[in-house]
C-alpha cells in the first residue's frame, strides 16, 4: 500500500537543502510548501513518504548501507541498553557501543539516527505548514498524522539523547523544531521538549478524529498508518514518563473504553510476530513487505538478523541472546505462552540431562562477564546438580527465593574468585545441548529471540511495532499503582497474564504478591511489563523513569555493573555531525 504511493511520492520530490538540525549539509526528501498548497492532494504522497523514512535505506554521506535505517537503529539503541539481551561478544556492528554504554558519536547508529529523525521532523513541518485544516476529513487526518510523526521523532530524540524526565525538566534536552525556520539551533530543556510533544499529540488527536474511514478505505485492518488510537496511546506513554499519572489514566481509559474483547483478552502469540501489520494487537507499526526488506536475501541487515540464526534458511547472525536473568524470570511459569512463542533454542538434545552455566569475569579490558558451560550433567534426587570446573567439584543447589527456584553454588564467588562461607554464585540450569549448529559450540547456551522474524515465512522479515495494546494495559496498570489503585493495577496485570495462559493460582492478588517476592504492586507491574514487552525497546526507560537502577551483572559482553537512573551515560552522545555543524553542547561524560 505505502510502497506504491512511495513511488509516486518520489516523482514529486523537491530537493531542499535541509538536514540534521541546521539542515544545511545533506538534502531532504520533501515537497516545498508552495507545491503542497498548489496541489493539496500531494499531502497524501508526502505523508506516505515520511513513513518510508522510518524504514528505507537512504544515501547518507555518499553511501547507502543495508543496515543503516531508522527503525533498526531505534530498536537496537533502546533495547540493548537494558538487561534483557546478552550479546555474545565484540562485533564490528556499532550496536556494541550503546550496548556497553560507550557511545561513539561518530558511528552511524547515532549519526544516521539523529539525521533521519530531523529529516522526519522537517518533512512533517512542511506538511503541517501546508495542509489547510478543515478542507476535508481526509486532509484533517493527514494533518493529524504529521503532528504525530513530528511528536514521536522528538520523543525518540529526547528519550535517547537526554536524561530521563524524572531527573529534572531543566536538564539539556534536544533540538526542538516546530516550523521551517532553521536559522538557529539550540538545545531546549527536557521539559520544553516534552511539553511540545504533548501539544503536538493533542493536536494530532483533534485532527485524527476525522477521516479515518477514508484513510483506511482499502484495508481497515492495516496498521501501517497512524490513527487516533496511536496518538492517544503515545500520549498516554508520554504522560507516564512525565509522572502525570492522572492524565495517563485518562488517555488509557479513553482507549480501553472501545477496545474489543479480542484486543484485550485474546492473543495468538505464535501468529502475532508474523502478522503485526494487520493483527488486532498492533496499534501502529512500520510495515515492511517483500519489496521493502532487501535484507531477506542474506539476513544481514534486518532487526531480527542479530537475534536469530535460521539454520534451514541459512541466514541471520544470531549474536543477541536472551539474558540468563530474563530466561529465569520466564521459567517461573512454564505455562507462559510468551516464552514458547518468542524463543528458539539451538540443538536441544532432550536426553534428560542438563547443563550448568557459570558466570565468570574475563581479564579483558572490557571487564565483561562470560559463562562457562558444563554439559551432560544429571539432576540428583534432591534437585541439585554436581559438576566439575577447573578440576574442582561443585554442587548447584536449588534454593527457593520468594517461592521461585534459583540455583546457587555455595562457598565461592566465581566472578570475583573469593571463597568462604559467606560467598556464593548464582548459576543457571539449562537443558542439555549438543555440538551441532552455527553457535552451539560457543560459551553461551543460546536462547534466540524470534519477535522480529518469520513474516511471510521469511526468517528475517518483520514489521516492527511502536505501539500496541499490551503496552496500553500496562501503562494503565502502572498509573493505577502510582495513584493508589492497587486492585485496579493488579486487574490489568492479570488481564495480560490471562491472555498469556497464566490463570488461577498464577494470577496476582493483594494477598499473594508479597509472598512471591514483590515489595509493592508497582514491582508486580514492572516485572510483568518486562515479560510482555521484552526486546521492544522499553526496559531501560521503564527502570530509569521509576528511579530504579539497571542491574547488568550477568553473562554478556557488557561491563559487569549496576547503572543508576541518574548516570550521565544514559543520555547517548549526540551526533558529531550535529555538534560540528551547529555547535550545540555535547552530553556530559
What does this structure look like?
This protein has 19 helices and 19 strands. The protein has 589 residues and is α+β, with helices and mostly antiparallel strands. It has a seven-stranded antiparallel beta sheet with strand order 11-12-13-14-9-10-18, with no helix packed on it. Helix 1 packs across helix 3. The radius of gyration is 24 Å and the shape is globular. The N terminus is likely disordered. It folds into three domains: 250 residues, Serine Threonine Protein Phosphatase 5, Tetratricopeptide repeat (Alpha Horseshoe); 141 residues, Serine Threonine Protein Phosphatase 5, Tetratricopeptide repeat (Alpha Horseshoe), CATH 1.25.40.390; 139 residues, no CATH class.
CATH topology tier name of the largest domain: Serine Threonine Protein Phosphatase 5, Tetratricopeptide repeat
How many helical stretches? Answer: 19
For the biggest β-sheet, the strand order reads: 11-12-13-14-9-10-18
Assign the CATH class of the largest domain.
Mainly Alpha
Please outline the major beta sheet: 7 strands, antiparallel
Q: How far do the termini sit from each other? A: 45 Å
Number of separate domains: 3
Question: What labels would you give this structure?
Answer:
single chain; 589 residues; alpha+beta; Serine Threonine Protein Phosphatase 5, Tetratricopeptide repeat; 3 domains; 7-stranded antiparallel β-sheet; two-stranded antiparallel sheet; 19 helices; globular
Amino acid at each position: 500500500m505505502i510502497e506504491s504511493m512511495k513511488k509516486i511520492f518520489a516523482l514529486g520530490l523537491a530537493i531542499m537543502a535541509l538536514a540534521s538540525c541546521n539542515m544545511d549539509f545533506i538534502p531532504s526528501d520533501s515537497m516545498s510548501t508552495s507545491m503542497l498548497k498548489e496541489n493539496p492532494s500531494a499531502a497524501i504522497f508526502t505523508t506516505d513518504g515520511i513513513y518510508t523514512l522510518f524504514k528505507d535505506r537512504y544515501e547518507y554521506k555518499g553511501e547507502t548501507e543495508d543496515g543503516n535505517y531508522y527503525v533498526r537503529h531505534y530498536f537496537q539503541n533502546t533495547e540493548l541498553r537494558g538487561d534483557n539481551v546478552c550479546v555474545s561478544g565484540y562485533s564490528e556492528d556499532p550496536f556494541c557501543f550503546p550496548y556497553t554504554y560507550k557511545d561513539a558519536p561518530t558511528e552511524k547508529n547515532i549519526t544516521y539516527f539523529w539525521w533521519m529523525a530531523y529529516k522526519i521532523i522537517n518533512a512533517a513541518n512542511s506538511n503541517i505548514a501546508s495542509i489547510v485544516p478543515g478542507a476535508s476529513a481526509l486532509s484533517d487526518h493527514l494533518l493529524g498524522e504529521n503532528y504525530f510523526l513530528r511528536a514521536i521523532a522528538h520523543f525518540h530524540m529526547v528519550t535517547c539523547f537526554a536524561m530521563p524526565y524524572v531527573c529534572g525538566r531543566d536538564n539539556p534536552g534536544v533540538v526542538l523544531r516546530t516550523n521551517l525556520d532553521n536559522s538557529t539551533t539550540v538545545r531546549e530543556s527536557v521539559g520544553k521538549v516534552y511539553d511540545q510533544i504533548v501539544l503536538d499529540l493533542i493536536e494530532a488527536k483533534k485532527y485524527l478524529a476525522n477521516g479515518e474511514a477514508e484513510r483506511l478505505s482499502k484495508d481497515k485492518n492495516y496498521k501501517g498508518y497512524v490513527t487516533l488510537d496511536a496518538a492517544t496511546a503515545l500520549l498516554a506513554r508520554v504522560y507516564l514518563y512525565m509522572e502525570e499519572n492522572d492524565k495517563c489514566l485518562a488517555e488509557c481509559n479513553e482507549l480501553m473504553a472501545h477496545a474489543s474483547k479480542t484486543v484485550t483478552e485474546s492473543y495468538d502469540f505464535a501468529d502475532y510476530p508474523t502478522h503485526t501489520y494487520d493483527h488486532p494487537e498492533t496499534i501502529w507499526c512500520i510495515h515492511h513487505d517483500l519489496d521493502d526488506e532487501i535484507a531477506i536475501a542474506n539476513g544481514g541487515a534486518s532487526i531480527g538478523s542479530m537475534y536469530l540464526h535460521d539454520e534451514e534458511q541459512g541466514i541471520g547472525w544470531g549474536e543477541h541472546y536472551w539474558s540468563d536473568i530474563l530466561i529465569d524470570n520466564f521459567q517461573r511459569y512454564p505455562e507462559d505462552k510468551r516464552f514458547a512463542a518468542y524463543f528458539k533454542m539451538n540443538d536441544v538434545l532432550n536426553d534428560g540431562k542438563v547443563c550448568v552455566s557459570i558466570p565468570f569475569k574475563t581479564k579483558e579490558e572490557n571487564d565483561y562477564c562470560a559463562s562457562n558451560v558444563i554439559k551432560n550433567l544429571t539432576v540428583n534426587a534432591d534437585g541439585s546438580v554436581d559438576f566439575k570446573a577447573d578440576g574442582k567439584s561443585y554442587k548447584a543447589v536449588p534454593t527457593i527465593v520468594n517461592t521461585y527456584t534459583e540455583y546457587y553454588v555455595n562457598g565461592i564467588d566465581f566472578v570475583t574468585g573469593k571463597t568462604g562461607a559467606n560467598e556464593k554464585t548464582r548459576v543457571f540450569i539449562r537443558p542439555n545441548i549438543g555440538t551441532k549448529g552455527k553457535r552451539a559450540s560457543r560459551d553461551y547456551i543460546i536462547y534466540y529471540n524470534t519477535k522480529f522474524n518469520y513474516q511471510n515465512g521469511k526468517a528475517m522479515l518483520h514489521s516492527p511495532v511502536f505501539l500496541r495494546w499490551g503496552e496500553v494495559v500496562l501503562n494503565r496498570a502502572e498509573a493505577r499503582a502510582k495513584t493508589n489503585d492497587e486492585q485496579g493495577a493488579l486487574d490489568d496485570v492479570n488481564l495480560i497474564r490471562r491472555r498469556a495462559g497464566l490463570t488461577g493460582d498464577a494470577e496476582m492478588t493483594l494477598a499473594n504478591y508479597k509472598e512471591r517476592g514483590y515489595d509493592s504492586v508497582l514491582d508486580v507491574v514492572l516485572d510483568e511489563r518486562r515479560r510482555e514487552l521484552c526486546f521492544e525497546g522499553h526496559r531501560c526507560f521503564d527502570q530509569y523513569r521509576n528511579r530504579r537502577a539497571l542491574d547488568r551483572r550477568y553473562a554478556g559482553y557488557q561491563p559487569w555493573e549496576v547503572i543508576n537512573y541518574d548516570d550521565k551515560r544514559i543520555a547517548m552522545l549526540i551526533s558529531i555531525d550535529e555538534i560540528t555543524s551547529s555547535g550545540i553542547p555535547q552530553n556530559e561524560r
